[in-house]
Design brief:
Radius of gyration of chain A: 22 Å
Helix content of chain A: 40-55%
Largest sheet of chain B: 5 strands, mixed
Order of helices and strands of chain A: HEEEHHHHHEEHHHHHHHEEEHHHEEH
Structural class of chain B: alpha/beta
Number of helices of chain B: 6
Number of strands of chain A: 10
Helix content of chain B: 25-40%
Oligomer: heterodimer
Distance between the termini of chain B: 76 Å
Shape of chain A: globular
Largest interface: A-B, 54 and 48 residues
Largest sheet of chain A: 3 strands, antiparallel
């Protein structure tokens, strides 16, 4: 230990093929012993130029690109993009389609939060819980498949509406899934929040204060877990959210105080599952319009010509499972949009890492990095450079360190 | 920032406040409303076109109204000038009262420089870095001058969002269909059609793909024979 101290602080790069993201990213940690002194990261290892591609395609073609921006948020990006185009072209989406969009967005939230919950458990070395969370997640994917025909990349949203209706005969199957999740909530809360190990690992780690959450422009459950009342669904209602009665989920709904730590982020995400169930129920109950009235214009040439005639600019915002997603579109009476800018939720949350990783330990990196973003895969490779020699940590080693820390606590 | 004592201003009041304070420096203010849902819940947005010189003060003004959630900076290359759009959101947490404020700033092409707002909103630095990198807009006093998304070996002076000479050059775009197949891999077990292959030779120049990269790769007859064999054998076995 004393030898290492002489060289401290030393730098640890993690990545670029890294864990906590859908995209690879390179972290550089300045370490002092086991403690992180400074963090830096550089994203963009798989910048795909989707905006560039989109500016050479028409809006109906772009819808298929936006479906594939993220593998988890299959509805979010298309929802935001089509809202922007609809505002520019003045397209009124049928009310029924707005309700179906909302139902899909909430089903997506359930599956995304469960996916994240499982990954978080895995990062802590709690693989039983990981397997459980992913098993119960299947039900939401089954329902999504039942409605859209696909587990991911649903392709349900079209400019001006949705492609598939939810008819009366389908409601019992959806209701079955909703009751399933309703019955699970208590169990999930107990398993995640009352577990001794999760308490010890997550309470007080990765703290993001409310002030920092605001100044660093964080969004979604990350911001709400710090006590920031920010939820696009409530602040600027879109789709069917304006008609529905629901409250923002903050840690204080469950805990007596808000710390802004990893534990609070678990609380917010778990409690958003019953919230989504309630929203879907209300949507199904009050579904307006007649069956089949789900598109502003079902004839493709008419839709394309309406988009081609459109000129102007607009912003489409939606609350993705991870937070606010913004699509800015400027159109100039041409086939393709003149400018298209996508801001995904993680874009806003990444800067929070600099804040929440400071002062934490190496073994806490996986869970804290994962805590802002449900799409956590696993640390692929870490190389530790100590003066002249360098050794490489595989993702398994880093994961093992995290597991060992958990065991050490018990 | 305080949740309790916020009395939300309407979009109109925000617009008035700006036009009073920055008279002469604002060229356009428009208020837009969009409704969705069965109850047609309205969401208001204020779009303010300002001069570059007052950007910093305008962001300060937004903060004095309500500390905003800073969304992102969009940038549009309008050929003669570049337009930056600062998307901000105030009064979040007040159900249905949220107002979207977008500050639009036009920059002449010969003088693409904008003051940073990261001293007021630290999180904005991320988006400013992106504008430097993808649009080539210089941000004065930016605390972090590194790029964000493009690889380290990306050519200097090329900005993917530009629509002029500094944009992506044609030669930089790789068409997936034109990249061909790696030569060190085994051929696919499909019988190639030599006649069509010869015809497609004429189109190569159109795609500016090198000759040997054309799909499917040209093969001598001997190679073809060798390749078909395992396929036929497999069929026999299957029967």
């Amino acid at each position: 230990m004393s030898d290492n101290k002489k060289n401290a602080p030393y730098k640890i790069p993690i990545g670029p093929i890294h864990p906590a993201l859908k995209e690879p990213i390179l972290f550089t940690f300045k370490m002092n012993g086991e403690v992180i002194e400074e963090v830096d990261f550089s994203p963009g290892k798989v910048h795909r130029g989707i905006e560039w591609m989109g500016m050479r395609r028409n809006p109906v073609q772009i819808v298929h690109l936006t479906d594939r921006i993220c593998g988890i948020c299959g509805v979010t990006h298309t929802f935001a993009f089509s809202r922007a185009v609809e505002q520019v072209a003045g397209i009124r989406v049928p009310e029924r389609a707005q309700y179906i969009r909302t139902i899909m967005a909430e089903l997506e939230r359930i599956q995304s939060h469960l996916l994240w919950a499982g990954v978080a458990a895995h990062e802590l070395g709690f693989d039983t819980l990981f397997n459980l969370a992913w098993r119960v997640r299947e039900e939401s994917l089954d329902v999504i498949e039942y409605i859209t025909g696909n587990r991911i990349n649903y392709g349900i949203i079209q400019i001006g509406g949705v492609r598939r209706d939810i008819v009366k005969e389908q409601i019992p199957r959806i209701e079955e899934a909703l009751s399933y999740y309703e019955g699970l909530v208590d169990k999930m809360l107990k398993l995640f929040l009352h577990d001794k190990t999760i308490n010890m690992r997550c309470r007080g780690s990765g703290i993001l204060t409310k002030k920092a959450a605001l100044e660093l422009c964080t969004v979604g459950p990350t911001a709400r877990a710090s006590g920031l009342k920010f939820d696009v669904r409530i602040d600027s209602p879109y789709g069917a959210y304006g008609d529905i009665d629901f409250d923002m989920v903050l840690p204080e709904c469950y805990l007596s105080e808000t710390n802004g730590d990893v534990y609070d982020r678990i609380v917010v995400r778990i409690l958003e599952i019953p919230q989504s169930v309630s929203i879907i129920r209300q949507c199904l109950k009050n579904m307006p319009g007649e069956e089949g009235d789900i598109l502003w214009e079902p004839k493709m040439p008419k839709l394309l010509s309406a988009c081609k005639k459109a000129g102007g600019e607009a912003v489409g915002r939606v609350e993705a499972p991870r937070g606010e997603c913004i699509h800015y579109v400027r159109m100039k009476k041409a086939d393709a949009p003149y400018m298209w800018k996508v801001k995904a939720s993680t874009y806003s949350n990444q800067l929070a890492w600099l804040e929440i990783l400071k002062g934490e330990q190496i073994a806490d990196i996986p869970i804290i990095v994962a805590s802002i973003d449900p799409c956590m895969s696993c640390t692929d490779r870490v190389s530790v450079i100590r003066k002249n020699s360098s050794e490489i940590f595989t993702k398994e080693q880093l994961h093992r360190m995290s597991v060992e820390k958990t065991r050490g606590l018990n | 920032m305080s949740d309790i004592k916020r009395t939300p201003l309407t979009a109109n009041e925000i617009a008035d406040r700006f036009s009073d304070k920055f008279a002469g420096k604002i060229s356009d203010i428009s208020i837009r409303q969009w409704t969705e849902g069965a109850k047609s819940t309205p969401v208001n947005s204020v779009w303010i076109t300002i001069e570059r010189s007052i950007l910093h003060d305008a962001v300060k003004e937004v903060i004095s109204i309500d500390y905003p959630h800073f969304g992102v900076i969009s940038a549009v290359d309008e050929v003669d000038f570049v337009e930056l759009l600062y998307h901000m959101y105030v009064y979040f947490g007040c159900p249905g009262k949220g107002v979207e404020i977008t500050l639009k700033v036009a920059l002449p092409k010969e003088d693409l420089i904008i003051p940073t707002i990261s001293d007021l909103i630290p999180g904005a630095v991320y988006s400013e870095r992106e504008k430097r990198e993808l649009m080539g807009v210089e941000v004065a006093d930016i605390p972090d001058k590194r790029g964000l998304f493009l690889p380290d070996d990306f050519p200097k002076g090329i900005y993917p969002w530009r629509k002029d000479d500094a944009g992506i050059k044609e030669g930089m775009v790789k068409d997936l269909w034109a990249v061909g197949r790696p030569e060190d891999r085994p051929n696919p077990p499909v019988k190639p059609k030599p006649k069509k292959e010869a015809k497609s030779g004429g189109d190569e120049t159109k795609n500016s793909a090198p000759k040997n990269d054309v799909w499917p790769p040209e093969k001598s007859d001997e190679e073809n024979k060798a390749e078909i064999k395992p396929c036929e054998l497999a069929e026999v076995k299957g029967e």
